[in-house]
Amino acid sequence: MLSRRMFTGCAICAAIGFVADDASAQTPSGIKRTITARIDGPVEGYETLEVIVDLEPDFVLGWHTHPGTEAGYTLEGAGELLIKGEATKMIKPGFSWITAPETPHTLKNGSQATKLFVTFTVQKGKPLATPVPAPT
Predict the structure, then answer these.
(1) 25 belongs to a structural domain
(2) Where in the numbering of this chain does the Cupin type-2 domain appear (predicted)?
(3) What is the C-alpha to C-alpha distance for residues 113 and 132, in angstroms, rounded to an integer?
(4) For every residue of the chain, which 3-state class applies, written as one string?
(5) Domain range holding 91?
(6) In the chain, how many domains are there?
């Protein structure tokens, strides 16, 4: 069984570099992902996942991209969403967003736990997220 401590040395990689097939096996402390639905499509080579994301207070999800579209909705909590080329977005309950494929973004959680509902439509077999350097 994998322990959370095993991922301390590469927290960012473990936080966002997992393959969609087994998200829970590589999630470090600070974030919990629960896949609630998965279906092939909308076109061949892609899959759509619905995911509940729980973030602990003050957790920072490093800069990363997705091999497809991310559409999210904030259920609880608050934080800052930074998307390359856009103004900082303050997330709070009821706030939604869409991130285009391969667009760098990061999320800084606030002082309370946050719960998100996120739909990913991504290329099947690729890592759900890939860490990238902060844009300049």
Answers:
(1) no
(2) 52-115
(3) 25
(4) CCCHHHHHHHHHHHHHCCEHHHHHHHCCCCEEEEEEEEEECCCCCEEEEEEEEEECCCCEEEEEECCEEEEEEEEECCEEEEECCCCCEEECCCCEEEECCCCCEEEEECCCCEEEEEEEEEECCCECCEECCCCC
(5) 33-124
(6) 1
Task: Report the CATH number that the domain containing residue 115 is assigned in CATH.
Answer: 2.60.120.10
Rounded-to-integer distance, Cα 34 and Cα 111, Å: 22
114-123 and 68-76 as β-strands: parallel, antiparallel, unpaired? antiparallel
